[in-house]
């Protein structure tokens, strides 16, 4: 934070001096001004990623909500959006589970994104995403609304103390199937791990190795149990401090209104009028605005649409 403030002060000094400079001096100073601006932005972004586990990999789960086939298709569109985001950032994406929808789209996608501050960035995407468009699944092309939920949690390794008793687990082995299991559906390689005390179910079916699938499923279960305890501690800390932030999970954080060509984040008021680019993974402005909101540096706005 000290480096950020120092650079901000230096940049402010340059801007105050700017009107007094000649055209030639301004031309000479322009590269320095642009460099300082980029450094200031980078340092500011670092201050938004100062929360625990921001540097960890992100485990992302996408599930369709209300909307039937339309919602399943929307979940698949979101999966593609985050896949493209990872590609743009040079991150790796490891698929854990992909279950096809009954008619189209997907019933669930779960994957791990690894890269610099992957969890920190993608944590801003957790919540319910709303799609409004003329439905391609309706013969009359009627305008429909559908929802999908995005869950994001940090991946934790075995060095983090998470107690899992063997008697609390039920491990089922089954045949891999669907899009997530193409190429491996001739073997009983899919694994489903059930944590009996919490009812948490984790499935993995994307490798030919039953052992590898089990290890991935256990890693995700460990991360889920860790997140539950972590959130309990954060909620208790907030209670002791007298804080009363609304619960974010399950709330509508963003609307994608395709026939009117806009996307609105309801937490921040951030608007985009290029939905094609956003759905192709261009999420930077939305993510940084969301992180500002999480850090309390951006005022929450009313969640009503412009419609």
Please provide a written account of the structure.
It is a single chain. Helix content is 38%, strand content 24%. It has helices spanning 2-17, 23-48, 69-89, 118-122, 210-241, 275-279, 284-294; strands at residues 58-64, 92-100, 106-114, 127-134, 143-154, 169-174, 190-195, 200-204, 252-257, 262-265, 271-272. An eight-stranded mixed β-sheet has the order 2-3-1-5-4-9-10-11, with helices on both faces. A three-stranded antiparallel β-sheet has the order 6-7-8, covered by helices on one side. The longest helix has 32 residues, at 210-241. The protein starts with a helix and ends in a 13-residue tail after the last helix.
Give a topology summary.
Layout: H1 2-17, H2 23-48, E1 58-64, H3 69-89, E2 92-100, E3 106-114, H4 118-122, E4 127-134, E5 143-154, E6 169-174, E7 190-195, E8 200-204, H5 210-241, E9 252-257, E10 262-265, E11 271-272, H6 275-279, H7 284-294
Parallel strand pairs: 4-9
Antiparallel strand pairs: 1-3, 1-5, 2-3, 4-5, 6-7, 7-8, 9-10, 10-11
Helix pairs in contact: 1-2
Strand content: 15-25%
Distance between the termini: 40 Å
Number of helices: 7
Indicate how many domains the architecture comprises: 3
This entry's quaternary arrangement is: single chain
- As laid out across the biggest beta sheet, the strand order is 2-3-1-5-4-9-10-11
Radius of gyration: 22 Å
What does the overall shape look like?
Answer: globular
Main attributes of the structure:
alpha+beta; PCRF; methylation; 7 helices; 11 strands; PrfB; protein biosynthesis; 3-stranded antiparallel beta sheet; single chain; 8-stranded mixed beta sheet; 3 domains; 307 residues; Pep_chain_release_fac_I; Double Stranded RNA Binding Domain; Alpha-Beta Plaits
């Amino acid at each position: 934070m000290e480096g950020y403030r120092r650079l901000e002060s230096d940049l402010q000094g340059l801007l105050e001096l700017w009107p007094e400079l000649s055209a030639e001096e301004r031309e000479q100073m322009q590269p320095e001004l642009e460099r300082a601006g980029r450094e200031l932005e980078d340092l500011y972004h670092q201050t938004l990623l100062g929360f625990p586990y921001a540097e960890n990999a992100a485990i992302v789960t996408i599930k369709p909500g209300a909307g039937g086939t339309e919602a399943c298709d929307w979940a698949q569109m979101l999966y593609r959006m985050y896949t493209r985001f990872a590609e743009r950032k040079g991150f790796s994406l490891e698929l854990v589970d992909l279950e096809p929808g009954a008619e189209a789209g997907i019933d669930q996608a779960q994957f791990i994104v690894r890269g610099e501050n992957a969890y920190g960035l993608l944590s801003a995407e957790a919540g319910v995403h709303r799609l409004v468009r003329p439905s391609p699944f309706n013969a009359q092309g009627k305008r429909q609304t559908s929802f999908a939920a995005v869950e994001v949690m940090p991946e934790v390794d075995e060095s983090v103390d998470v107690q899992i008793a063997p008697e609390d687990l039920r491990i089922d082995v089954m045949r891999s199937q669907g899009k997530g299991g193409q190429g491996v559906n001739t073997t009983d390689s899919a694994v489903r791990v059930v944590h009996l005390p919490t009812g948490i179910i984790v499935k993995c079916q994307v490798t030919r190795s039953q052992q590898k699938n089990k290890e991935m499923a256990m890693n995700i279960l460990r991360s889920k149990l860790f997140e539950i305890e972590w959130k309990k501690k954060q909620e208790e800390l907030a209670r002791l401090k007298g804080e009363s932030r609304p619960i974010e999970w399950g709330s509508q954080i963003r609307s994608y209104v395709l026939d009117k060509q806009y996307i609105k984040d309801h937490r921040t008021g951030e608007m985009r009028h290029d939905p094609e680019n956003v759905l192709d993974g261009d999420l930077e402005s939305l993510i940084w605005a969301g992180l500002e909101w999480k850090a309390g540096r951006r005022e929450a706005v009313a969640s009503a649409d412009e419609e």
